[in-house]
From TrEMBL, chain B:
It is found in: Cell membrane. It comes from Actinoplanes utahensis. GO terms for biological process: transmembrane transport. The chain crosses the membrane at residues 12-33, 73-92, 104-125, 137-160, 181-204, 241-262. It comes from the Bacteria. Its main location: membrane. InterPro entries: BP-dep_ABC_trans_perm (IPR050901), MetI-like (IPR000515), MetI-like_sf (IPR035906). This is Sugar ABC transporter permease. Residues 69-262 form the ABC transmembrane type-1 domain.
Length: 307, 277
């Protein structure tokens, strides 16, 4: 929209030549990014909203009919949606909570360690860079009965981790934690480095214990970094797909919302209900983001870099 | 800072972290050398009883894997290249210029970074089939570069902000246009940031799975993560586990090499966009 207006009225008298040239160049340089993002996300999302109002299966294109919000009613009254919602919530809360604690420990060690510092920092990047599907296979085969060492090592006999919901979710979450803790720990390390050392010094002089310094000085001064790391990881975990797909294919109530959207849209080509799930999934993400930004006052201007 | 003793405890903790990060890789390598024929017999052990190369031979003679590897390499490289070029222009404008729509672009990039890709597989699946780019390289390259753009734009604009302004102005005072100043002065200074962004973008494209299985149907465009999930082994009587692990080792090698060489850059890049210094 702004692009069009700018082209239509290039030279306003109150804008100097140079400023106007700068504005035009700025818009030109941003245009490709803008166009691509609209084409691949905004347009398909609108398309999904439209499709979600129809009863439309690719296997029966003739039967396409307008059903209004009928698909939404169907999805929201279906126990599968709520079961998958619950699974996604469990995985998200468990993995983000563990990662926050673990990530903080990692960040603290990376901050303090002197001998072997770059070795640890290099090693921790490996899980970050590894393909999620590969991580899922590694952990699956470690726990799987016919290939894994876990049952032998921990004397679990013939316990099938993927045979029931909670143990399967445990392994899925473990793979997720292993793969993404490095990211959160690096964000926390960046926040930790910014806490002025003088604050620590002052607290020490005042007789604060190490624990008090951590809780009263370090953590409050890292709030921005912690909130940003939490927001990003929460939304990332909420979209979890690869791990359950590879490990359980959604068996035993381990299907997540992204998996449900994939299954309805791609496997079953049930585009009407599938699009309704897509739109609902999008809305859950918006709600989580709003909770963080408004509820927890996460400062996104830092992230956006426009401050 | 003053009384920070060089306690061996930190080094020990560092080793524990290292073990946690690398132990699963050891398991992957170990599985990839197990004998596929005797794999199912007896109690599973951590290390192979006899180390064999069979799995790697099978993997490289399997066209499902070799074509997937080719698709992965080219799709990831092309998408990375395009994303970095497009993001470089936008990041430059964001870091250096004042223009309407700048805030909107940044907000949009942020929204897309949080976007659930699964919400798009349905519409994209449909659109791509209508456009005739379903199951093609370009059909994956377009969404990959789009989802890589937000990260690329932030990371690069964060790097670009640290570039000394005056040098560009000096070039303009000397008669260079904004474009010339960009090309001759900023690009050389910005190269490290651009390169770092390229590594992170490559990791993203190399890793992507959901779109890869949703927008492809044959080995024409199927990438390695997608192919891995279809891998069934040399024959139906053998377990595919050892093959999948051999293929996994192969596609993990580039990641390990990039991490080993560019550790500092990757760390700087990961934190540059997200938490401002």
């Amino acid at each position: 929209m702004t692009l069009m207006q700018e082209r239509a009225a290039p030279e306003k008298p109150e804008i100097t030549d140079r400023a106007s040239r700068e504005r035009r160049l700025g818009l030109m340089l941003s245009a490709p990014a803008f166009v691509v993002m609209v084409f691949v996300t905004a347009y398909p999302l609108v398309y999904a909203v439209v499709l979600s109002l129809y009863n439309y299966r690719l296997t029966d294109p003739e039967g396409r009919e307008f059903v209004g919000f009928g698909n939404y009613a169907t999805v929201l009254t279906d126990p599968v949606w709520w079961s998958d919602f619950g699974t996604t919530l469990i995985i998200t809360v468990a993995s983000v909570a563990v990662e926050l604690v673990l990530g903080f420990v990692f960040a603290f060690v990376m901050y303090r360690i002197i001998r072997g510092r770059s070795l640890v920092r290099t090693g921790i990047l490996i899980p970050y860079g590894i393909i999620t599907v590969v991580s899922a296979y590694i952990w699956r085969y470690a726990f799987q009965l016919d290939s894994g060492f876990v049952n032998q090592w921990f004397g679990l006999g013939a316990f099938d981790f993927f045979g029931e919901r909670w143990s399967a979710l445990f392994v899925i979450t473990l793979s997720e934690i292993w793969k993404t803790t490095p990211f959160i720990s690096l964000l926390l390390l960046a926040g930790l480095v910014q806490v002025p050392e003088e604050y620590q010094e002052a607290a020490r002089v005042d007789g604060a214990t190490a624990w008090q310094r951590l809780v009263r000085v370090t953590l409050p001064n890292m709030k921005a970094a912690i909130m940003v790391a939490l927001l990003f990881r929460t939304l990332d975990a909420w979209r979890i797909f690869d791990n359950p797909f590879i490990m359980t294919v959604g068996a035993n109530d381990t299907e997540t919302l992204s998996f449900l959207a994939y299954r309805q849209n791609v496997t079953l080509v049930n585009l009407g209900a599938g699009s309704a799930i897509s739109v609902l999934l999008f809305l859950t993400v918006v709600i989580i983001a709003v909770i963080f930004v408004k509820g927890f006052k996460t400062d996104l201007s830092q992230v956006r870099g426009d401050k | 800072m003053a009384d920070r003793r060089v306690s061996p405890w930190w080094t020990v903790s560092g080793l524990v972290i290292l073990l946690w990060a690398l132990f699963p890789l050891l398991w992957m390598v170990s599985l990839s050398f197990k004998d596929p024929d005797t794999f199912r017999s007896g109690t599973p052990t951590f290390f192979p009883e006899n180390w064999v190369w069979d799995n790697y031979k099978t993997v490289f003679s399997d066209s499902l894997f070799t074509s997937a590897l080719r698709n992965s390499v080219f799709i990831a490289l092309i998408a990375t290249f395009l994303a970095v070029i497009i993001a470089m222009f936008a990041a430059y404008a964001i870091a250096r210029m004042d223009y309407p729509g700048k805030k909107f672009l940044l907000s949009m990039a942020l929204a897309i970074a949080m976007f659930p890709q699964a919400a798009l597989v349905g519409p994209l699946f449909n659109m791509w089939r209508n456009l005739g780019i379903y199951d093609t390289w370009i059909g994956l390259i377009i969404p990959y570069l789009t989802f890589a753009l937000p990260l690329s734009i932030w990371t690069m604009s964060a790097f670009f902000r640290q570039i000394p302004w005056e040098m560009e102005q000096a070039a303009q005072v000397d008669g260079a246009t904004a474009w010339q100043a960009f090309r001759k002065v900023i690009v050389p200074l910005a190269a490290p940031g651009v390169f770092t962004t390229a590594i992170l973008t490559f990791f993203f494209c190399w890793n992507e799975f959901l779109l890869a299985i949703s927008l492809t149907s044959t080995d024409k465009a199927r990438t390695v993560p997608a192919a891995l999930s279809f891998f069934t082994g040399a024959s139906q009587f053998q377990s595919p586990i050892t093959y999948i692990m051999a293929a996994s080792v192969v596609v993990t090698i580039p990641v390990v090499i990039l991490v080993l060489i560019f550790q500092r850059r990757i760390m700087a890049g990961l934190t540059a966009g997200a938490v401002k210094g």
